[in-house]
Structure formats: structure tokens, C-alpha cells
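REQUEST FORM: STRUCTURE PREDICTION
Request ID: SP-0412
Submitted by: Lab K.M.
Chain count: 1
Length (residues): 298
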Amino acid sequence: MENVHILAQRISTRGDYLPFDSEQFVKRDADPIHKLVEQLQTTLHIDELLTVFAEHAQRIIKLSGLQFHSSLGIAQMHNSDNQYTPYKFDLMLNEEHLGQLVYFCQYQLSDSIKAKLCRLHNALLYPLRNALTYNRVLKLATKDALTGLNNRCVFTDNLAQRIERDRRLQSRFSLMLLDLDNFKQVNDLHGHSAGDEVLVRFAHILKECVRSTDSVYRFGGDEFAIIIDDPEFTTNKVIAERVMHAVRHCHLLSKLAVTTSIGFTLSAMHDCESSIFARTDKGLYKAKADGRNCARTA
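STATUS: Completed
RESULT:
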């Protein structure tokens, strides 16, 4: 055994021993690409991935903005300035097209710069695919599959959060419930595919009629809800009239004699989820009792 030797070296900063090839390990740790991979693996949010990646890409080019286009939509780095010329790169991993990475740069990219960026993309591929997979699963769990609206589970969570915020900050909001008049007749006479088309069109109308601060939900069937981030009672009337006007002027819905009934209410300091929902539901039933195709408050 006297001829057996273990080759090791001390790393002064750690005070322990590593195998003889530890120099390669230390160099790999210092490799900027390796550090980039480690940083990219710390998040599953695509915007954050792009922000981290952009910090490294800026060592190669002076970019002003960075976007990623995929089936999930458009994501971009923090404070992305997209006014300059776009340079597009398709990202592929094992013959799977992940999406398109778009650089915005004031200066033209040479072939050598493009080649360097393509090599840098290799560090992004797996973290990006993981983030895409995570966000697709998350979307399935929180979105209505047919209309793309937030589902009832999200509505329940968001309503509870909004009521708690109302209590703490005395920041009032409105709740609106909507359903479609004569929807069962559409399914019975024209089939469920026509009914699905009506739901998709109505969901689109709702998204077009609210502001970016408001949130639209589908419970299932022909039942929908809107949380309106506004303390003014008249805002409910404006949104309700806007929705009913859009429904009346929609060729598909008017052809099938589909209208909408709406109930709404303002939040109160004593409200819980069930009380504000019940009050809004009473407004909806009142709209039904008053002949449908109208908006009422309890």
C-alpha cells in the first residue's frame, strides 16, 4: 500500500481537499456561461429569465430591448425599449420550436455577433423550456379552456384578496355577474358547437368592454363575473351598457337572439365573499325578472 498515493490539492478559500482535476472545476465555476446557466435556473418566470439573459447578452451587443414570442404570448425583459430594429432568432431544442427571441438594437448585427449570440442561446434553451412547461401547466390550472378567461378557482382567490384589501385600505370595488339569455335554446336548436362559439364571442366582448385594471372570469356554462376596480357606482352602469351594446351589435349573438342579463353591486366594509356575491346575484335575478337584457342592482 505504500505505493498508492491520492492526488489532491487544497483550495485555500474553502480549507478542504478536492480531486486533482479541481482546477477544471474551479475554471468551470468561473466560466460566465456556467454562471449564466446557474442564474437562469433560479426562476420559472419568462420575463425574469429574459432580464437575466439580457444582462449577459449586453456583453456582446448593446441591446435596448429583448422579447420572446411563443404560443403563450409575448414576454420581455424588464424596461425593454422596443423602438429600434428587431433581430429575430428561432430557438429550437431537440427539433422542438420553443419560440422566437427578438433583440432590439440601435446598431446592425454582424454575422460574427449573431454567431456569438447563437452560442449564448444554448445556455437559455433548457431553462426556457422548463419555464414554458411550467407556465402552460399553470395556465391550464387557472384559465377556462374554452374562453381563455380566468376560471372560478381564480375568481374565489381574487375576490377574497380584494375584500381583504378593501378592509385594510378602504379601497372599494364592484362585483358584476352576467349570464346569457336564451343560451339553452342555442344548444338545443343549433348544437353545442354553436353554443361554444357564442361563449367565445361573449368572452371576447367582455374583455373588450372592461379596462386593464378589471378582471373577467367564467364560472362555467354561461355564467361570467367581473371584478371592477372602481369605487364609483356609475362605472358599473357604463360597463354594463357597453357590454349590452356590444352584444346587440354582434352579428352572431343577435342572429341567435342571445342577450345578457347583468347584476352588480358596490363592496361594503362589512362584506365577506358570500355576502357580496349574494347581493350581486340578487341583482342578476332582478334583471331576469324585469324581462332580461338589462342590468340591475340589489
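NOTES: Residues 1-30 have pLDDT under 50 and may be disordered.
Reviewed by: T.R.
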